[in-house]
């Protein structure tokens, strides 16, 4: 198999030869101009973004719709206004489709876009105080995202990707029930045409998302990334992603904590224990929804960046071994760090990919 063929076999659970690795350069991703800039600016939604350090992602500081009492006066932007520039076209023209997959990206999908427009506290409060208006507001955002994805489909992309951070280090930002009431139906609407076309959906959410992993698999998400290792219990999220079919070690321990730098291992264990107590009903919730959750979803990431940044090459190999033991069986795993940060020692990066090659064969 070529790397592309092996990647597709992995995410489709069709017998890959090895665990795909994040350094294989299989994806060519692009985004229409006008949706995101890594600078201080005001976007088409009326959100003012301010950048701190050069090269970092800006943060929404000006929120054009602080209250849904004013929803009737708010104007959603036109997805057709985003630009398919000559630079983007030139980049796509030279892509070897035999070796690479083309992914159309959208920074800030739904939840992220909503709180950027309103402000986090205002948005979360509105879900309780203005539920009808919140549904209408979210559907307006969803219509925009659906429109962007339809434009990508017209260009013949292999899939779509987007940012949609839903979790903190210990739990979701909203309850799973509230997620299912307000957010999940809009995902179905956004993804409908992408799924009909048989394209890849690569869903990015940092933080603890294991309580809704089964929901995402159930609506057809192809890949969930980056699977922050110590924000999620890997056994639980693997079982959820496999449609309940995974029957690995049921222990919720994190043995790879032993391979973290000592100064961080205790904190990681504490966070893990707290998170497990808060999320212990995920498997039972999945079983209760079993008739509607038949999909399987690949998992991408899970190699703890803290180990890469502060551990030794031996720590890194132990981390890869620990993660592979849980996420490799049955296919559907792509090995790479759970975050992208600068300053990783080169010897640790080399140890990561060496371990992935050694341990990733099926």
Describe the structure.
The protein has 362 residues and is of the alpha/beta class. The chain has one domain (22-246, 265-295). It has 13 helices and ten strands. The strands form two sheets. A seven-stranded parallel beta sheet has the order 1-5-6-7-8-9-10. It has a three-stranded antiparallel beta sheet with strand order 2-3-4, with no helix packed on it. A hairpin with a 5-residue loop joins strand 2 (41-42) and strand 3 (48-50). The longest helix has 24 residues, at 131-154. The relative contact order is 0.12. Mean pLDDT is 90; it is low at 249-294.
Number of domains: 1
Q: Structural class of the helix and strand makeup?
A: alpha/beta
Q: Tell me the number of strands.
A: 10
The amount of beta strand, in percent, is 5-15%
Parts with pLDDT < 50 across at least 5 consecutive residues: 249-294
Shape: globular
Give Rg in angstroms. 20 Å
How far apart are the first and last residues' alpha carbons, in Å? 13 Å
- The largest sheet has its strands arranged as 1-5-6-7-8-9-10
- Biggest pleated sheet: 7 strands, parallel
Helicity, as a percent range: 40-55%
Q: Report the average pLDDT across residues.
A: 90
SSE succession: HEEEEHEHHHEHEHEHHHEHHEH
Number of helices: 13
């Amino acid at each position: 198999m070529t790397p592309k063929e092996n990647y597709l076999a992995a995410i489709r659970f069709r017998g890959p030869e090895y665990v795909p690795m994040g350094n294989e350069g299989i994806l060519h991703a692009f985004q229409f101009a006008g949706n995101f800039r890594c600078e201080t600016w005001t976007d088409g939604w009326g959100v003012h973004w301010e950048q701190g350090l050069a090269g970092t992602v800006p943060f929404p500081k000006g929120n054009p719709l602080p209250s849904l009492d004013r929803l009737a006066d708010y104007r959603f932007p036109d997805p057709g206004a985003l630009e398919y520039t000559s630079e983007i076209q030139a980049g796509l023209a030279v892509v070897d489709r035999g070796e690479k997959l083309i992914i159309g990206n959208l920074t800030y999908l739904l939840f992220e876009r909503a709180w950027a427009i309103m402000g986090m506290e205002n948005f979360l409060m509105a879900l309780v105080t203005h539920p009808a208006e919140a549904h209408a507001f979210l559907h307006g955002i969803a219509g925009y995202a659906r429109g962007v994805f339809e434009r990508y489909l017209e260009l013949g992309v292999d899939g779509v990707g987007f940012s949609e951070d839903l979790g903190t280090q210990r739990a979701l930002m909203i309850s799973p029930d509230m997620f299912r009431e307000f957010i999940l139906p809009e995902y179905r609407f956004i993804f409908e045409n992408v799924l009909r076309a048989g394209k890849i959906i690569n869903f990015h959410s940092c933080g603890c998302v294991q309580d809704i992993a089964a929901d995402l698999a159930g609506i057809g998400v192809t890949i969930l990334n980056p699977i922050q290792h110590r924000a999620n219990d890997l056994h639980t999220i693997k079982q959820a992603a496999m449609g309940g079919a995974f029957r690995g070690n049921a222990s919720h321990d994190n043995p790879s904590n032993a391979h973290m730098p000592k100064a961080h291992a205790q904190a990681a264990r504490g966070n893990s224990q707290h998170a497990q107590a808060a999320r212990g009903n995920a498997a039972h919730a999945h079983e209760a929804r079993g008739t509607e959750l038949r999909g399987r979803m690949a998992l991408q990431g899970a190699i703890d960046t803290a180990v890469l940044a502060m551990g030794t090459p031996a720590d890194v190999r132990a981390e890869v071994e620990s993660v592979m033991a849980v996420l490799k069986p049955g296919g559907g795993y792509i090995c790479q760090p759970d975050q992208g940060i600068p300053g990783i020692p080169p010897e640790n990066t080399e140890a990561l990919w060496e371990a992935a090659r050694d341990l990733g064969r099926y």
